[in-house]
Amino acid sequence: MCRKLISRLRFILGITLLLMAVGASAGPLHDAVEAGDQARVKRLVMEESADINEIDERGIWPLLAAATDGNTAMVELLLKLHADPNRIDQYQYSALHEAASLGYHEVIEILIDAGARVNVRDINSITPLGYALRSSDQTSVELLQSVGAVQ
């Protein structure tokens, strides 16, 4: 699991550095989410009408960023502000896929409670349960199976 995580982090870092080199940016809402600044997130969404489901130039949307960080408070806030728990990218990848792959049990629970589809398949036909199995995280596997998730 550790080797896979290190490999994934290297990949993400490499893509991030590449996108930074070509001028890809996150935008104010994404920056606020990634910084964990709840007050700024609320202001941007409620007062400045920031698109809470917008995918930025890096291919990331706010809920995915919060799920990637394992930031349960931010995930809850974004869902309260009407983030779509079923938002997917061009690869059919969801925030639930991400939380399952990283073993963030609380985030998985929050997303499921918000209506995230547990059997959504990404472009490689992998479900969130498939990612949990790959990461060998038994708690995530059991949690997803308890709500009817399939591989």
Short description:
The protein is mostly helical and 151 residues long.
Essential attributes:
151 residues; mainly alpha; Serine Threonine Protein Phosphatase 5, Tetratricopeptide repeat
Report the major sheet. none
Number of strands: 0
Number of helices: 9
Beta content comes to under 5%
What does this 3D model show about the protein?
The protein is an all-alpha fold and 151 residues long. The chain has a single domain (24-146), classed as Ankyrin repeat-containing domain (Serine Threonine Protein Phosphatase 5, Tetratricopeptide repeat, Alpha Horseshoe), CATH 1.25.40.20. It is built from 9 helices and no strands. The protein has helices at residues 2-21, 28-35, 38-46, 62-69, 72-80, 95-102, 105-113, 128-134, 138-146. The two termini are 18 Å apart. The model has no long low-confidence stretch (mean pLDDT 88).
Per-chain topology:
Elements: H1 2-21, H2 28-35, H3 38-46, H4 62-69, H5 72-80, H6 95-102, H7 105-113, H8 128-134, H9 138-146
